[in-house]
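tRNA-modifying protein ygfZ
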Amino acid sequence: MAFTPFSPRQPVASARLPLTLMTLDDWALATVVGVDSEKYLQGQVTADVSQMTEHQHLLAAHCDPKGKMWSNLRIFRRQDGFALIERRSLRDAQLTELKKYAVFSKVTIAADDELVLLGVAGFQGARSLEKPVQRPS
């Protein structure tokens, strides 16, 4: 019989937790930039990226030509293109698939490991994100 030092607990809704900040190490960022980035992604993912605003993010899927889903991802506008948040374990294979037809468009598709992805949870989470974070001088 295995020894478990902690008593079993039921999952708790994040809205009942105190403010919590966590790293999202299992997730990775990729970018699609260039003058054709919107048009290119519009034909590659299931989300309607042409209707996305600067402050929106959408859940999307990337599928093969027969409609079978390769992966899901979160997409948002970033600088002169788009950023994709996807499972780190799938990112390299996903980028290979995304790049297959990119030679016909003016886009650059790349992994971005310079940023750290963080998650915020808890009943104070939304309020804590209302104020911009000040960087130390």
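thats it. The chain has a mean pLDDT of 88. The beta strands are 20-23, 27-33, 57-63, 69-78, 81-87, 108-112, 118-121. bye
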